[in-house]
Request: fold
Amino acid sequence: MNTTINKYEVFLKVVEFGSLSQAAAYCNYSQSAVSQIIRSLEKELQVTLLTRSHAGVRLTSDGKSLMPYIEELARSFDLLYRKTREIHGIESGLVRIGTFHSLSTHILVPILDDFRKEYPNIRIELLHGDNKTIEDAIGRGIVDLGFANLPVSKDFEAIPVYTDPFVIVMPENHPLADKDEVPLTILSDEPFVLYDEATRKEAFGILLEHEIPFDIHYRSTDDMSILAMIERGMGLGYMGKLILTDTPFHIISKKTNPQHFRHIALAIKDKRMAPRTALLFFEYVEANITKYTKPVYEKNQL
Reply:
């Protein structure tokens, strides 16, 4: 059994997977042990938390109302365990990191590879999402730290890691393919394919700021779908250039006039309360980030 996982975390994994067997596999428990943990928790709280059927398990109404408190207990027990390990001088445990796919693929993975060589006993768990999801996860303690666009909440401490230019994305055979830059207002003249990252800090917010009238033909939170649409000539895109790194699609990007950037940071809520493992990762990134990223873009260098 995995003794680092408390009963509240086991319950949360059952809810997340909707399956006792999948949660058991994740936690390295037997299915019967997981069932016993759930029964014990229900007996302790004197409520039925889950309903079971051939389709899996799901929360009861009582379970839904208690979820925020169980999540808080799980985080507190996990922090207690990690702090105890720190007292004993053991550099092991788990770091939960919020991130998004393009940064994970091109920047975070090389960092993790080297970090693991220095701290082989520290495990990493990634939560992928959009900027809003990641900031919320940091604030609620679902992740220990995460990558988000500046400015972040005033309650967070953050270090800049990457400056990414926003670019217009078009198919290779577009009439403007030979231009060095294009006006941002081009998006009011052609169909627009919006990569929706659920925050005003991204492309959508910039266009609203400039009051550019645009015609959204397609909207998606999946970057690969958006790039495939652009390749087929279904519309123009506007997004951070990092997404286009090593893309297999036959598309090109153009800097814009005016030019905008997103400034990506690694944020942590409270270094005083953070687990030692999270602080080690935060400090490693702070000391070594220039090894993994290009120099910060200047407005005339794209």
